[in-house]
Amino acid sequence: MKKIRLDHLKTSLDEIKRLQRLESLRGVEDIVIKHIVLLIETGTSEAREELLAIEKVINEELTMTRENLLISALKNSLKGALSVAKFYLL
Fold this sequence. Notes:
4 helices
């Protein structure tokens, strides 16, 4: 299983917020959700650990929810995917 690079995810989210490049949010969302699905399919303890690490990044990096509805929607979407994954993995 290829791990998602959490440092790249953090950098991508920071750049989107800094540059207000909100059109990039959909691409980030697609990549993260596809990776979450892969983690569910893998079902290993390593997958569970990575899922929790992704959740931590999402909670820490997506903090502009009051300023921007698109970022709020992204956070809600990813948190929903994480909740489903946690149901299956934890």
